[in-house]
Amino acid sequence: MNGVYRLPAEWEPHAATWLAWPHNARDWPGKFAAIRWVYAEIVRHLALSEPVRILVRSAEQEQEVRNLLQRSHVDLNQVTCFFIPTNRVWTRDYCPAFVQHQSGGVHAVRFGFNGWAKYADHELDAAVPDNIARVLDIPLKQLSHGDRAVVLEGGAIDGNGRGSLLTTEECLLDQQTQVRNPGLSRGDLEAALRAYLGVTNVIWLGDGIVGDDTHGHVDDLCRFVNPNTVVLAQEDNSQDANYRALQDNRERLEFARLEDGSRLEVVALPMPAPLYFENIRLPASYANFYIGNTTVLVPTFNDPRDRIALGILADVFPGRKVVGIHAVDLVWGFGTLHCLTHEQAAG
Fold first, then answer.
1. Burial class (CB in 10 A: 0-12, 13-18, 19+), 227
2. CA-CA distances (angstroms) from residue 7 to 101, 106, 154, 193?
């Protein structure tokens, strides 16, 4: 691994989890009122074992947050609000990566953020890493290749803490649809990941799932659950739009190797039945779970496969409590639990 920085795995100890309190009703047209209560449930479970740090826009919003969390029986001693404005709530993608420095301290790595190469109003989100580094008083580095900032989102990568990283070609190498880094090659991106995140081994999957607004984020698709095991979304219906891409990714993983040259263990995770709202296919996936210090929060979709997915994840996380969070309303914003959380690694 790179001798200076290391990106810890999500299951390693957290100093805190970061969230941004929902405020943009346009992200959940017709369903916004329910979203704050889903957030309260997320905070309630996380606060049992780690501090929760919430980005808010004003003192008035902080009071709203605290009132609602109190009504939901959240331990408010575990909650801190920071006046850091955002455009949207997807902290996974615009918060800095918290990396461990060789000195033992935690540093922040800022990615270039261009609104998923899709949304023009992203300036507040892009400034979040600077603001977080300032309030935490920790060093901040820019993910770069040469003198050029590299655009990336946290949901586009998933690591095992040992040097291996999952990502997709659809997201990071696309040069036509949602272009993050025009002209940068696979090798250029791998060099940046090595220098700033300590990544020595990139496992490239193909396409993400249908309905993904980000154009291929890996956290809806495939996740490390321990240093040598991943769960991979699997679609059994050959007529489903996700079938071919998920089969292709399974074949890729059969040939993939970890940083030490060993094979991956791959555990199949079912896909829920297709979920639609107003004729739009939504990116519903059990792979968008979040690993807290003692809990794994898993999106559920009023689907018979919810129980199967929760059972599989309970088996691969034997030391943690696996909790389902109702996400039928949440996914109308084109993201669920992993998308809206961001772990801060412990020092």
1. middle
2. 9, 10, 12, 10
Domain residues for the domain of 37 are: 5-345
What is the rounded distance in angstroms from the CA atom of residue 322 to the CA atom of residue 254? 28
How far apart, in whole angstroms, are the C-alpha atoms of residue 152 and residue 158? 12
| Strand segments (E) across 154-305 | 158-159, 164-168, 201-205, 222-226, 229-234, 265-270, 276-277, 280-281, 290-291, 295-300
Angle subtended at Cα 212 by Cα 211 and Cα 214, rounded to the nearest 5 degrees: 145
How far apart, in Å, are the Cα atoms of 320 and each of 231, 269, 323, 343? 16, 18, 9, 16
pLDDT tens readout for residues 269-298: 999 999 999 899 999 999 999 999 999 999
**At 8, phi and psi to the nearest 5?**
-65, 155
Average pLDDT, integer, range 109-136:
98
Distance between CA atoms of residues 144 and 150, nearest Å: 5
**CB-based contacts of 146, cutoff 8 Å, min separation 6:** none
Question: Could you tell me the CATH number of the domain that includes residue 138?
Answer: 3.75.10.10
Residues with catalytic annotation? 339
Q: Is the pLDDT of residue 183 over 50?
A: yes
pLDDT at 104: 86
Helices (H) and strands (E) in the chain, counts: 8, 21
Distances (CA, A) of 281 to 55, 186, 248, 273, 292: 29, 30, 21, 11, 29
Largest alpha-carbon pair distance within the chain?
53
For 304-340, write each residue's pLDDT tens digit. Answer: 999 999 999 999 999 999 999 999 999 999 999 999 9
For the chain, the domain total comes to 1
**What burial class does residue 67 get, using C-beta atoms within 10 Å of its C-beta: 0-12 exposed, 13-18 middle, 19+ buried?**
exposed
pTM: 0.97
